[in-house]
Amino acid sequence: MEINLSGKKAIVTGGSSQLGRCIVRSLAQCGADVAIHYHSNSNQAVELAEELKTMGRFSGIYQADITKKESVFAMRDKVYSEFGKPDIIVNNAVIQYTWKNILEQEDEDFIGQFESCVMHNVYMNKAFVPHMIEQQYGRVVVINTECAGLADAGSAAYVAGKRGLDGIVRCLAKEIGRYNITVNQVAPGWTISEKDRKEHGEIQPDYDKTVPLGHRGTDQDIANMVCFLASDLAAFTTGAYIPVCGGRFMPAI
C-alpha cells in the first residue's frame, strides 16, 4: 500500500514557508502537481518550483494576500488559467506574531489571526471548492495546531483563530461531504523545520519532556499526514481534527 496522488493537482497556501515547503515536496513525491502560493517570499517559491520540475512534476508560483478575498480570487483565476483546477487544497498559511498575555496582546493580533485562520479558509473554499463540487471529488486539508486544544497562557490570539478555523472546517465537512469531498485538519505540535536543523535547535528539553514520545515531531511527520488525508486511503475520513504532536494533546471522546 502506498500514497498515490498521480494525476492530481494540489495548491498549498504558505507553500514557500518552513512547513509549507515540506508539504509541497511530499505531495510532489506522491505524484501530484503542485501550485505554490506565497505572500512575500518569492525567491523560496521560485526555488521550490524549480525543484519540483526536476522531479518531473508540473508546478507554478502564485502570490496572494490570503486575508483579502479579491486577492485570493485573483490567484484562483491565474491558477486556473496557468496550472489547472486543483483537486487538493492545503490551507497552511498563517500570520506570525509575538505571543503575549491577553491583557497585553495588541488588538491587531487578534484580528490578524482571525483573518489568516478563519477568513483565509473561507476565501480559499469559496474560490476553489465549487470546481470540486462540479467534478464530485476533492480533498481539503487544513493546518491547525495542538495549541487549539491546550489553550496555554499567552497563546490566546492564535488559539482563538485556530478554534474559529475548527468550526469552519467541521461545518464545511458536513456541507460538502455529499459531493465526495473530504475536509480534515492536521494539528502539529512544535515542529522541527529546516530552520531548526540549520540552527541546531531540534532538541528543546523543556518542551520535549511534555511530549509522551519524548521529542518534537518533524515537518515530514506533518507532511506525511497531509498526504494521507489528500489521498484515497482517507476517502472515508472527514471532519477530523488529527493531532500530530507525539501525544502531547489527546482529544477526548
UniProtKB/TrEMBL annotation:
<dbReference type="GO" id="GO:0016491">
    <property type="term" value="F:oxidoreductase activity"/>
</dbReference>
<dbReference type="GO" id="GO:0008206">
    <property type="term" value="P:bile acid metabolic process"/>
</dbReference>
<dbReference type="InterPro" id="IPR002347">
    <property type="entry name" value="SDR_fam"/>
</dbReference>
<dbReference type="InterPro" id="IPR036291">
    <property type="entry name" value="NAD(P)-bd_dom_sf"/>
</dbReference>
<keyword id="KW-0560">Oxidoreductase</keyword>
<protein>
    <submittedName>
        <fullName>Beta-ketoacyl-ACP reductase</fullName>
    </submittedName>
</protein>
<comment type="similarity">
    <text>Belongs to the short-chain dehydrogenases/reductases (SDR) family.</text>
</comment>
<dbReference type="Pfam" id="PF13561">
    <property type="entry name" value="adh_short_C2"/>
</dbReference>
